[in-house]
Amino acid sequence: MLAPTDAAWMARAIALAERGRGRTHPNPLVGAVVVSPEGVVVGQGAHLVAGGPHAEVVALDDAGDRARGATLYCTLEPCSHTGRTGPCVERIAAAGVRRVVTAIQDPNPLVDGRGHAWLRARGVEVVVGVGRDDAERQNAPFLTWMRHHRPWTVLKTVTSSDGFVGRVGERTQLSGAAADRWMHRQRAWIDAIAVGADTVLVDDPELTARGPVRTRPLVRVVFDWRGRTSPQARVWSTGSAGPVIMVVLDSTVQADPARFEALAAQGVRVDGYPTRDLAAVAGRLAEAGVQSLVLEGGPSLQQAWLDAGLVDHLQWLITPGVLGHGVPMVPAVRARCEAVSRDRWHCLDADWLVDKCLQG
Length: 360
Known about the structure:
This protein has 360 residues and is an alpha/beta fold. The chain has two domains: 133 residues, 3-Layer(aba) Sandwich (Cytidine Deaminase, domain 2), CATH 3.40.140.10; 208 residues, Dihydrofolate Reductase, subunit A (3-Layer(aba) Sandwich), CATH 3.40.430.10. It contains 13 helices and 16 strands. It has a nine-stranded mixed sheet, sandwiched between helices. It is globular.
């Protein structure tokens, strides 16, 4: 049964969960709040690092004996299995919690309703679905990875005010300092970024993360089906900063095996595919533990992922400059983002960010 204050306490738990962003992989973000029968917070916590205590345990430790008869608000179904930590449901029951309110059921096959069922079987009232939408957005990478066996994928494009991503064949700096800082903050928590061969040929980026310190190396993925990039491209020599994956056709590797053996000797992971099957690429990335992927360019790669139905979220950074001509952004991205109400656009100094969810 829902209580009038359930939504507010769940919002607090969701806010607490953010404390773990970028540090809990492969686990989800989870926050928890313990509220007494009198409506007073007696304990709270978050899962802060993989292998560390779960949010429910942190909150119950904080509450101590005051947890007896209380309600536990948790952003995700409590676990009922033993992993690096013990089952949270046992700790909840032992603490004497009367009622458990969760936002979403954990799709992990090891849990997937078992935690809720275990608690109900022991007389604990369980309410599921409070704050579901916000919790789903917060844990979109983990949930997509678990439910669909592929990374949650963001298509991010930076353009001039007239919709060009750059001049033809020429590196073009568009975003301002505030937008650059925002992009590197994003790189601090996402698992992987991807670009196409044209981006490497024109911009020669390193694709490294600057800003907040990462707890896991950033995976860099270059789609170079035909092997058009230079062996001297800077990204190939940045293996010390994190894994570098080259996505290429098997036929391309077979045509010049020595070249790809040399790249592999540098530490580049050369992933060959018989066809340009993006679903297969997404599946292989998921198997490697990649839960979140940002497609940073260029338009051809982004259009291909859109066509394959593998994009979950759009991000369009609009800069004030005018190019007049150049490489146009993907038309479908512009159309969908322009449909977002202007009062939901985010100002980044002189630039604007438009966020658009496509799935769910």
